[in-house]
């Protein structure tokens, strides 16, 4: 294969590595493009294009993450990763690790790690790279990488829920949830929510919040039933989709523009967390973005009729 063909063959893997390190679709795409420029400019052919390109995109992503962490500390409100609908990289042998590492919950746990720990965890635990390749990618010794991997795994394991939902059970519960969601069925929603359910949004100060962080089945069910009915009456659409490998939805206005995304954490037969991304800067890769302020104003007018 030509260098360009080798790169295109590996592009899905490179994006998937960069996205998990960065939690940003746009930054991951930029990191992949910069990787190509460096690969194209290299005067020699790599013995292993996969190892070379994976190391290059990881180093670029680590550098970007270091500067991004400063911006995230000053971020207005709760920071969530940019929602991803489809992971371009598929590997049946590591399907479980890939799906688990893509969830909003896992990416938020990764935010607690240092950039080096995060990169080592992603390369080793998610994509199964040997420690030699991991060491080359992050510029540390194999022994140091083993220590980084142990620390990262300890942090990740401590933050994970103890019992993951069966994928089919999770899909069935999510279908019932969104049926009740569209119908404004208060009792139906409340029955599917954990008693201590959280509904949290990321607007970045650039979009309205349909309620700040809410806790408890009663409050969350009441807010949803108060808003979704009027939203649908003004032509809004709730489009169920997988969001970061989890059950979720895209809410669109009457023109099909994206208002926000929702992602559900489901455990022990209940919805534990609902995460909404409303920041328009994080939605542009999904298509044209709605004026959420205008949508909320119209929804509120419909509520009062």
Automatic annotation (TrEMBL):
GO terms for molecular function: DNA binding; sigma factor activity. Residues 105-156 form the RNA polymerase sigma factor 70 region 4 type domain. Pfam families: Sigma70_r2 (PF04542), Sigma70_r4_2 (PF08281). Transmembrane segments: none annotated. Keywords: Sigma factor, Transcription, Transcription regulation. InterPro entries: ECF_Sigma-70_Domain, NTF2-like_dom_sf, RNA_pol_sigma-70_dom, RNA_pol_sigma-70_ECF, RNA_pol_sigma70_r2, RNA_pol_sigma70_r4_t2, RNA_pol_sigma_r2, RNA_pol_sigma_r3/r4-like. Residues 7-69 form the RNA polymerase sigma-70 region domain. GO terms for biological process: DNA-templated transcription initiation. Belongs to the sigma-70 factor family. ECF subfamily. Interacts transiently with the RNA polymerase catalytic core formed by RpoA, RpoB, RpoC and RpoZ (2 alpha, 1 beta, 1 beta' and 1 omega subunit) to form the RNA polymerase holoenzyme that can initiate transcription. This is RNA polymerase sigma-70 factor. It comes from Amycolatopsis iheyensis. The lineage of its organism: Bacteria, Bacillati, Actinomycetota, Actinomycetes, Pseudonocardiales.
